[in-house]
Write a structure and sequence with these properties.
By secondary structure, the chain is mainly β. It contains 2 helices and 22 strands. The chain has an 8-stranded antiparallel β-sheet. The longest helix has 27 residues.
Amino acid sequence: MKKIILVTVLIFALMLTACGKSSETNSSAKPLDLTGNWAQEGKEFDDGYQAGYISGDRIEIFWMSDGGKTSSLYWSGTYEAPTEVADEYTWDSKNDKTRTDKALLASGDDQKTFIFKDGKISYEASIMGKTATMHLVKTETDYMSNGSGTESADTSNLQEIKLNNSGHSILQSGGRTTILYAVDISNPNAEYAIKFPKILITAKDADGKILKTEEMVLNGIAAGDQYTYGSSVSYEGNIPTTVEISVGNSDDDYVAQSSSEIIKSSSLSVSNISDNPGTFKTFTGEVTNNSTEELSSVAITVIYKSGDRIIGGETSYINDLKSGEKKPFEVSSYSNFKDYDSYEIHAIKW
């Protein structure tokens, strides 16, 4: 009988010890800590990716470009930290529209659902009508100062990008309408570049119904600079009665010229140009990079004119133009537009 009692006591003691250890382990466990910097999985420092940070009760995410050198706000919202021990966590972030309403590339959603699982934060992001699931992972890169690490600007004394001139032409074939457009824009700020100038094209019918609207985001205009850019918008439908062209930028787009890598348009010179007739006309020439920057991409734009009026434009691109290098280019006129008196060719960093 004593043996049975002793065994019973030992088993009970072992159970208490195990419970004590389990209780100690659980009491030392902490809820997930998601604060810190996050970047798109496998995309950080690519030409375009998303990254951001969680701090306090806020999460902010940016569209990053130029290998992480420039940024534009995509999301600023609430963050509710986990209060229980778990491997997964989901929260609904409410949009801080005092921040996002000023950013043209920001989401307009009232709230966004974020899911943490397997070491990643996932959410849906949309731009230009397309939606994708983004996956962010922890990073050592600091994105808390707007993601770019460049000098922030006091926007109260800065001016928005200016539209000096614009024009368009309308083509239609087989029920498809194409609008060739071009703009002459300038940055009136003497010391601040604008990272992401935006062009908004809106086509309407006689009743004011919007037939097509599209935003083109350019890749920066230097302080005090001016340049011309043109492209096209195409859609299935009727010829518009009116075409509205406007430009703009957000408060997040200003960056001190001295700390940016945005070059003057005059740093790119175009020479030896010619137009070559054929089934589809082409424009050829050479572009020289007179800046000290190594350019990953350059936009070459043909501007069509009737007299002194801009009536449209088309753009092509070349890659990897080193400092001091000259490269040939060819712009194909896929619209086969012919109703112009003269043309000009311009180059800008892309």
